[in-house]
Amino acid sequence: MDQPLKVTVLAGGIGGARFLKGLRMIKNTQISVIANNADDITLHGLRICPDLDSIIYNLAGVADLTRGWGRAEESWKIQEELTKYSDEQPWFNLGDKDFATHIYRSELLRQGVPLHEIVANLCATWGITMEILPATNDEIETQVVLQRALEGRPFIHFQEWWVSHRAKLPAAGFEISGIRNAKPAPGVIFAILQADVVIFAPSNPVVSIGAILQINGISQAIKETRARVVGLSPIIGASPVLGMADACLRALSIETSSSGVAKMYGARKNGGLLDAWLIADSDSDQCQEIESYGLLTRAVPLLMVDDEITATMAKDALALVNLEVAR
Questions:
Q1: pLDDT by residue (tens digit) across 254-304?
Q2: CB-based contacts of 66: which residues, under 8 Å, 6+ apart?
Q3: Residue 146 domain-assigned?
Q4: What is the spatial distance between Cα 237 and Cα 36, in angstroms, rounded to a whole number?
Q5: d(CA 307, CA 22)
Q6: What is the tens place of the pLDDT at every residue in 28-55?
Q7: What values do phi and psi take at 137, rounded to 5?
Q8: Is residue 223 part of a domain?
């Protein structure tokens, strides 16, 4: 039997999770995932890892696909009781099943267990064989720099900006606390250097993929790996496929378009990060511009309607860098 294709994916939460569900349908692949954890937050004394949990819940088949986050068939008793004590309506909703995950993780963190081992335990519990790695074991948190201070605060946590304010507060930029000393989690650099292909999932290019890339050594490893590096655009037309990436791009004065994100990542042969960039078929008029940046490009359907269509997207990404798989 042929050796499996080693695929390493950089991924954020919901968009990354949906992509991974399609990717794993491709036979004879060995997949490693480097998941963003720069949007983690501590609430109620518990460490919450939204992107990691979204990936795990989706791959385990227990995610709430209607709401788009959290666990399916959820109840809300703990949050209701907490609201009675504080007399404040929560802006970050946590269900009872979700609370169990955060309690389990937080207790192990207090015992000194590193995050990557906790993630491995969660994956084993849910029967997930795909290797899921947090980008770092260090505690990092994305802060949003506001154009105008909110109640005297010049910046707020990303989750407050994203969830409570729906990214409506004009942002001047993003800073990640703890990033200066953050090191890649064990296995992250190896996963990049030993891969046959590295894929940037169609996740937020600023606060998901972009946050991963800011961790010491990760961008350099992507520039140095022997693997081909291909990304899938999270933008179709002038809008993000999921979430509010346009608000993040706007804060950095980056055009909300496939070509705008391609230019931001850049071509490896010109000192950037990608070899190829897959865009939506409706954006085919941007191919020439993207190719001028030194990137291979192709326009194909990119809406992740179901796992089968998403698997086809993943196969198209592999084909773009001359890695054919069974169709």
A1: 999 999 999 999 999 999 999 999 999 999 999 999 999 999 999 999 999
A2: none
A3: yes
A4: 25
A5: 4
A6: 999 999 999 999 999 999 999 999 999 9
A7: -85, -15
A8: yes
**Residue 227 shares a structural domain with residue 207:** yes
Whole-prediction pTM value?
Answer: 0.96
- Number of structural domains (the chain) is 3
227, 195 in Cβ contact below 8 A? yes
The structure tokens listed for 138 are 């260090």
Q: 171-177 and 197-200: which strand pairing?
A: unpaired
Rounded Cα–Cα distance for residues 39 and 142 (Å): 6
* 86 located within any domain: yes
Instruction: Provide CB contacts within 8 A for 19, sequence distance 6+.
Output: 9, 11, 201, 202, 203, 232, 304, 310, 313, 314
Distance of CA 280 to the CA centre of its chain: 19
Q: 293, 262 in Cβ contact below 8 A?
A: yes
| 93-108 as b/e: b if 16+ CB within 10 A | ebbebbbebbeebbeb
Give yes or no for a contact between 7 and 30, defined as CB atoms under 8 angstroms apart. yes
The 8-class DSSP code of residue 63 comes to: B
> Are residues 312 and 203 located together in one domain of the fold?
yes
- 131-134 sheet: strands from edge to edge: 131-134, 29-35, 5-11, 197-200, 228-232, 276-280, 296-300
Beta bridge partners of 279: 299
Give SS3 for 243.
Answer: coil
Partner residues linked to 176 by β-bridges = 142
Spatial separation of the C-alpha atoms in residues 207 and 187, rounded to whole Å: 22
Query: Collapsing DSSP states into helix, strand and coil, what is residue 287?
Result: helix
**Is 253 inside a domain boundary?**
yes
Of 122, 150, 180, the last residue of a domain is 180
